[in-house]
Design goal:
Order of helices and strands: HEHEHHH
Bound molecules: zinc ion
Mean pLDDT: 95
Radius of gyration: 18 Å
Number of strands: 2
Number of helices: 5
Number of domains: 1
Low-confidence stretches: none
Strand order of the largest sheet: 1-2
Structural class: mainly alpha
Helix content: 55-70%
Distance between the termini: 50 Å
Largest sheet: 2 strands, antiparallel
């Protein structure tokens, strides 16, 4: 009994680690993809010299959109700060960038539940790999 439980615990620990590793890999892959797609520059001001961040339009904790390229844009450090401190201006910027269709897509997708099981993560990673190869 006790041996069975500790084996279960070991299995659980490994699964948690595998999931964390997958999430880190996927974050890196999609971030590299978006940087390349956006030409390694800030899409708001065109800056290439400043630090360029990959910004999640809908926050990262929403897993149904975390690795969706439509939810990610490059912003330089200045524009990232601007976005965080100028709610109205940022919203106008998003409307111009995404248009109604894009805004609606993110709103709908953000309500979907993505179960972060290892199986789901790995199949999502395959999708990311395909996207990166296009
Ligand atoms: Zn910028």
């Amino acid at each position: 009994m006790a041996a069975g439980r500790s084996l279960e615990k070991k299995y659980h620990r490994e699964e948690v680690k595998d999931r964390k590793d997958a999430i880190l890999r996927m974050d890196k892959k999609i971030s590299d993809y978006v940087r390349k797609r956006d030409g390694n520059k800030c899409i708001r001001c065109g800056n290439v010299l400043n630090r360029i961040d990959v910004h999640h339009i809908k926050r990262r904790s929403i897993y149904s959109l975390r690795w969706d390229e439509k939810n990610l844009i490059t912003l330089c450090l200045n524009c990232h700060e601007w976005a965080q401190n100028n709610k109205e201006g940022y919203e106008d910027f998003l409307w111009l960038l995404l248009e109604t269709k894009g805004i609606e897509y993110l709103a709908i997708k953000s309500r979907e539940y993505f179960k972060t099981s290892l199986t789901n993560l790995l199949s999502k990673e395959i999708e990311i790999d395909k996207l990166c190869q296009e």
